[in-house]
Amino acid sequence: MSTNVLSTSAAIGFGGVVQEYLWNWENQQLRVVYETLGKGSPLLLLPSFSSVSTRLEVGELAKLLAPNFQVVAIDWPGFGESSRPSLNYRPEIYQQFLEDFVKAVFNTPITVVAAGHAASYVLQLAVKQATFSKIVLLAPTWRGPLPTMGASQQIAGMVRGLVRSPILGQALYKLNTTQSFLSLMYRRHVFTDAAKVTPNFIEKKWHTTQQPGARFASAAFVTGNLDAVHEQSDFLELVQSLTIPLMVVIGESSPPKSREEMNALVALPGVRSVVIPGSLGLHEEYPAVVLEVVRYFLLSP
């Protein structure tokens, strides 16, 4: 495993140093792209999992954090500019990747800010070993879209298999990643200000979904195959097992089922929380507000 600096022309970032981390999973080498910006104590910034997942969604937040931290933001394997092979994407891949990446890039316990579905992976690693010094979870979720909608594991598995199939799968995936569909999803439960969901914004998101191999990890997320836990009690137990400070940021317009899960999380003793404008994409829609509410927590001893 190694890291290499990429030229700015080889990758599209938010102004930092773009590097690749070469990581092996079951005798297959994956290229994972990450970006570093700023100086100071290290801070790992993790985007959420989604069909449009990329480190650029946390790029503005990274720039705001950079005066006080050395921010490292990643493209998860299977997403963004990282390798997108046709793996059977499942929690074990991301659990091992996160552990190996942190060990390779950092040499001291670090602060981590994680959005959406990255929450469970961060909590699991924090409980397993002394990797992090503080955790901030932004609109945390632990259950994928189809399971949240009530789909059984059997139905979700059938959908995942269809999307992975060579011809029909590509057609189904393209139908569910049209610019009109992406715009609908953003307006429904990702952003709260429809004026920010511009044609140019959606076109950039659409380009992310059209990269070769993009459907494999996306289908795994949507169908719940990236759910690192499967019960609310297991998610809450991870939080209760923490021995380091935790802060949770919730969007006041979060979808009802997701908001119920977040409310259960912040009701636990010792969890600091704040509610701000926004929904599941609050870290991208309101990065300055996020910084304002987490600044004291991040900078305090």
Descriptive tags:
13 helices, 42% helix, alpha/beta, 9-stranded mixed sheet, 301 residues
Structural class: alpha/beta
Residue share in helix: 40-55%
Gyration radius from CA atoms, angstroms:
18 Å
Q: What's the average pLDDT?
A: 92
| Number of strand elements | 9
Strand content: 15-25%
Spatially, the strands of the biggest sheet line up as 1-2-3-5-4-6-7-8-9
Give an account of the 3D structure.
- This protein has 301 residues and is of the alpha/beta class.
- It is 42% helix and 20% strand.
- The chain is built from 13 helices and 9 strands.
- It has a 9-stranded mixed sheet with strand order 1-2-3-5-4-6-7-8-9, with helices on both faces.
- A hairpin with a 2-residue loop joins strand 2 and strand 3.
- The mean pLDDT is 92.
In short:
This protein is an alpha/beta fold. Helices cover 42% and strands 20% of the residues.
SSE blueprint:
Elements: E1 2-5, E2 17-25, E3 28-37, E4 41-46, H1 59-65, E5 69-74, H2 91-105, E6 110-115, H3 118-128, E7 132-138, H4 145-148, H5 153-164, H6 168-175, H7 179-190, H8 199-209, H9 214-222, H10 232-240, E8 246-251, H11 256-266, E9 272-276, H12 282-285, H13 287-299
Parallel strand pairs: 4-5, 4-6, 6-7, 7-8, 8-9
Antiparallel strand pairs: 1-2, 2-3, 3-5
